[in-house]
């Protein structure tokens, strides 16, 4: 495959590399590359992004950190039994799973870990640099897909692991994407360093189900001048995410993102709570029920209810691939700072941008176009950074 | 109220003037004008339309045609008992209901009617002209809110009543809005005449519930590159509309509009049917269940279900007021032809325009702005007609 | 109405006599008696109870305790505006509402109340005795329909108000029904006294919505040998009950009852949680969503979801009337102790009995028949008490 | 396995032997026998039936008729891919699938078939007799699990295929079970012959989803004296059944059974329709939405909605095994005529019996007990036949 080898390759370094999402990312990228499945769910494979100069799926190389040991092919087998991966795919791409498995390094801190925060950051940075070096990668994007952490403990507390990884990404010169509600680059220590890094970053908390719906239904009520009185929701999910989010501290971060979508699209925060229940028997499947009470003309009371039954990893994986490609290309194009144009993907987006999904989509398409222009026209308009403050680093 | 009298007043001539929607329109306009209720559900009362030069609610004068006899105050009482109108409102605006009631003329053709089509059109035209004349109205908009008719019978068949009224509107020099799926101005005879009339017109079939949702959810699936495999729906509704739509011929027109939204937003027509059931005990309330089966990454099967429980008349009435105001202002501003910019309101819009609700909203706001400019700036850019072909023909 | 006056009359003493449930009880009893509405929801008005010798609705006299001041006619007006009572009924039975209002005495302890527990019990007992005496009632039943209290605080804590009222009922010689999850007669102090009282009592926590459904769906799964893996639920409710149950301590008592139904009908406790959310804008209406994941043949995963939208007071009121009549008749017939045969009505029934609704119904009908026999046959089989231990007090 | 060979073996002759239900029956019986899966969904494996003398699962031998050619192992593979059978099971029981496959004979009439009805019946009878003979079976039960036929065409029409098979069962001396809504033994020609045959028979139309729910919810409303105003339903299903039932004539038979359950449990037929939609992409999975509008106290309007998402074949297969065992044992015990005691399993049961699921369950358990008594006590009470007319005639 000399053609492939001569093309610049791009690394995708996954924090939580042995989790369900990461395993689906690696499996799916290989399956789509091999033509076994169409790229359903990947926005970057639609015609709107043809000219954006994104790295090809076949040019992505996977590695990452994880604190667990279970080999990727084994994880893929479990996901197949659970109906997340279709029968036969994991076997068909066993070589790619094994290749990625060899590039996973131990994460941390693990229980009893005696390393200091500085030592951990250094170790993580070295792992990423070594990955880039050994594979002669043009660049690598660090993507956090690890289980949600409890919300931060305040000023004096130790740095959360997600922030250690974010700092390692910065020190290794890598763009960073936080697909989880964990703190990551939002911690003041990392945010400060990110501001000076000249690197692009995106996040946080992928918008895959209930919040995706809220981002289209919220604007509908606002545009129709209907008054939302209450918006209540319950999420049932199993898998690791269910257990992690059953911790109220972890759920708090996630729910803040969900509420932000409503506040931003409705202009007010309606009554109502959001519950996240751990229901282990649901495995990787999640069900979200939303109940919206609204007033119509003359105060008439009406109700909308939605029930979303999806597979979390299958919803997240194509977005992770999208984000890795877009962020890598943004880095290549010299964009730096918070990538507000990627708000389409997130519950709680960095930078500035609209809150309604349709406008976020339009902005994403514009961003994609801006990435493509310089290649095609040799010196046209500069790519669209998020804000003048940080985007002018070119 | 000399100030009010000196301001130009605008007529709203309702076809089906004794129906639930019309009664809610008249009651609600008076109640909002009197400050008894906020204008929930009226998009034209939001800040985006402040400068559009729309007629004030207090300047609207109501009349119309109907084949039934029941007085409006009596209808309002029934709607109050059914929970459509809040307790007390009908009594509070009894004077306005009686005033509108006095302006309702007999519709047709009624069973055994011996008048020819030409005679009916002339009678309807005279009624409208008389209304405009007696009230010294600056203009009047004709709005069809009558029960849905069976789909047309083909070339040789008699003109449907909705088309007789549409022709009367044209001959009376009035803009026309078809809020129902009936044929109205779509009949070739009327369409031809409309093309030469220099009048603006809009329609058809108000987007009030299930199709409103489809117009935001369809784009969501398309934007996320998720593959919709089937989209099935059932509507339960009582009232006159339930009975009318239980006729398969009447339902066919309505369902065509619903399918068009999916075809236009998804790019394909998914599997699945739409049912409309007459459930008299639901009265004016309707419930719409939608079941959407879609594929995610690697073909994983997922499901979204929505349940919409709304009051049809309360959903329709503020949109009818919006449409009357916008169409009247468009007429005043010299816009003619199909008002594609009003696609936000319709299942099956006339003219050209986007299919997703969010883009339709943007277009509506642009249209509102275009209506306002000439007044404010005295000779700025001309208002936005639907297409070059017919716009500006006045 | 000399016939009516000569018939023995029965008192219904409501704890929480100004609440939504009590107001609906008094209004509804009068409206049904007057023939304004059929007795929908009253099981004791079905043919199965014709010969049970129950007191007629027209023979019930209402009174009660409450810590609030709002007059019953005013409360009924509010409930009419909220759609709980149909328009016109409250006005039609204004005399009966005023009569009941005159029989409401101040409850307690109120904030700052300096009376001792013994003093409060004595005051309550005197109020009840006075009510019975002044109206020359044959007997009176005390029914707790007050807001749910927080769960008890342990051995040394003060007696909850519900237990003070329960003790007053015993001392006044009145049968007692606890329609709420509050402790009432379950407190050890009251339970001990009840055991020696020779009085019948019933409870607790009326089964009006989600748990009613669970009591028929649980047996279905068990009878079909389907394995329920998880049963999750969310309740949205406004009104006073929503606010009271938003307190986790109050919700705990309620949820225990809900779980008991599943444990008793399924034989195991499935995964899953129950949430009770206070959503004030829903008023007296409540929505309960249940999600049940179960295994079929060969472990195939299936899902049942239910959505119950009901009006709490309208669901509770006819059951309260049923319970007052049945308990009064049981007292008359000499039945004492826990009335396990009334498990049909409760989430967490006293005494012994089946958990499935259908078997509970059969037992209720048998109980009704047993109450009737002595009257008809003059000395046939004794009525069915709950257990031999306490039922032998005749 | 000499022990097994010496025990009397029982044949299960499946009409539609290559369909999804039949394939799941054969696969599941083998998998449960082998201890690969617990007998979830099989009521006859619960303790209540321990002493009923039912044939062991390991003693069942499968054969049948089908007009299709696809080998059973291939069908099982397809069902595995569709998520109906768990991964690995079909392979584990390949030998049993092949053994059953060898016992499948061509059904009919096929398109262009020139055989007369009498010839077809004779051919089918010979196939069944040959099966019993070659395997030295003690007896065989014929079970119809073929696709639903269109409703019968009236007096002069040819006998439906299901009736040809039913007649063949009678002539071969075999008990008969109709798990479908097809006419089968209900055709007057077959009904007459069944009456004289001294054979037991059961049916029709297995109660696996929406109607199962209706059979527990209908009694709930009746027992609580709540007035059901409308009961509307929509079923979405793919697979062969979806296509067959999209034919209105076939759906008519099925819907009649669904309505019967409501009429029998509620005492009236509420408003509302039932739709059955063919949605091929759902495969063997079906979704049933029910919307029930009911009145509570004083006419307050309330709503219950249910959504059932199940796998039709996995729901049906354990019931088919139950029915084969119970009917075989009834035959052995000398019961003849319509088995009304099996109403628990059917939408439209033969014979007499209650309509509520809970009472049907009680009757089933009594029936099971009656089957066991003669064995255990050597000459106790005779087994419970359905009606005196035909019961005990052997």
Report on this model:
Four copies of one chain form a homotetramer. With 394 residues, chain A is an alpha/beta fold. Chain A folds into two domains: 2-205 and 314-388, NAD(P)-binding Rossmann-like Domain (Rossmann fold, 3-Layer(aba) Sandwich); 210-311, Dihydrodipicolinate Reductase, domain 2. Chain A is 43% helix and 18% strand. Chain A is built from 14 helices and eleven strands. A seven-stranded parallel beta sheet of chain A has the order 3-2-1-4-5-6-11, with helices on both faces. A four-stranded mixed beta sheet of chain A has the order 8-7-9-10. The interface between A and B is large, with 55 and 55 residues.
Chart the SSEs and their pairings.
4 copies of one chain form a homotetramer.
Chain A: H1 2-6, E1 10-15, H2 20-33, E2 60-66, H3 72-81, H4 89-92, H5 94-102, E3 104-106, H6 117-134, E4 139-144, H7 161-171, E5 176-178, H8 188-197, E6 200-203, H9 210-223, E7 227-237, H10 239-246, H11 248-266, E8 274-278, E9 285-295, E10 301-311, H12 312-332, E11 337-338, H13 357-377, H14 388-391
Parallel strand pairs in A: 1-2, 1-4, 2-3, 4-5, 5-6, 6-11, 7-8
Antiparallel strand pairs in A: 7-9, 9-10
Helix pairs in contact in A: 2-3, 2-5, 2-12, 6-7, 7-8, 9-11
């Amino acid at each position: 495959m000399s053609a492939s080898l001569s093309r610049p390759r791009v690394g995708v370094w996954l924090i939580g590399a042995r989790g369900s999402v990461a395993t689906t990312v690696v499996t799916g990228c290989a399956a789509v590359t091999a033509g076994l499945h169409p790229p359903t769910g990947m926005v970057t494979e639609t015609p709107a992004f043809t000219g954006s100069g994104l790295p090809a799926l076949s040019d992505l190389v996977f590695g990452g950190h994880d604190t667990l040991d279970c080999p990727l092919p084994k994880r893929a087998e479990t996901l197949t039994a659970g109906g997340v991966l279709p029968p036969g795919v994991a076997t068909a791409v066993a070589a790619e799973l094994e290749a990625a498995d060899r590039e996973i390094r131990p994460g941390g801190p693990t229980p009893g870990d005696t390393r200091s925060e500085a030592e951990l950051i250094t170790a993580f940075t070295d792992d990423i640099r070594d990955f880039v070096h050994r594979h002669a990668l043009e660049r690598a994007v660090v993507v956090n897909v690890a289980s949600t952490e409890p919300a931060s403990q305040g000023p004096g507390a130790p740095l959360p692991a997600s922030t250690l990884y974010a700092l390692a990404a910065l020190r290794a010169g890598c763009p960073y994407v936080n697909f989880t509600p964990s703190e990551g680059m939002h911690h003041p220590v990392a945010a400060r360093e990110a501001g000076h890094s000249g690197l692009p970053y995106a996040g946080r908390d992928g918008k895959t189900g209930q919040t995706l719906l809220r981002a289209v239904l919220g604007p509908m009520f606002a545009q129709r001048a209907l008054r939302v009185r209450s918006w209540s929701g319950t999420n049932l999910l199993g898998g690791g995410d269910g257990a992690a989010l059953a911790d109220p501290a972890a759920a708090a971060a996630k729910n803040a993102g969900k509420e932000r979508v409503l506040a931003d699209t409705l202009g007010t925060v309606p009554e109502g709570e959001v519950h996240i229940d751990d229901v282990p028997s649901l495995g990787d499947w999640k069900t979200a029920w939303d109940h919206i009470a609204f007033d119509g003309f003359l105060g008439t009371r009406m109700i909308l209810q939605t029930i979303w039954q999806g597979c979390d990893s299958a919803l997240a994986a194509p977005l992770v691939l999208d984000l890795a490609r877009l962020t890598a290309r943004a880095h290549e194009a010299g964009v730096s700072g918070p990538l507000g144009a990627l708000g389409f993907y997130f519950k709680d987006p960095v930078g500035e941008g609209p809150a309604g999904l349709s406008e976020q989509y339009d902005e994403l398409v514009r961003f994609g176009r801006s990435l493509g222009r310089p290649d095609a026209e040799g010196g046209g308009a500069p790519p669209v950074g998020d804000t003048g403050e940080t985007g002018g680093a070119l």
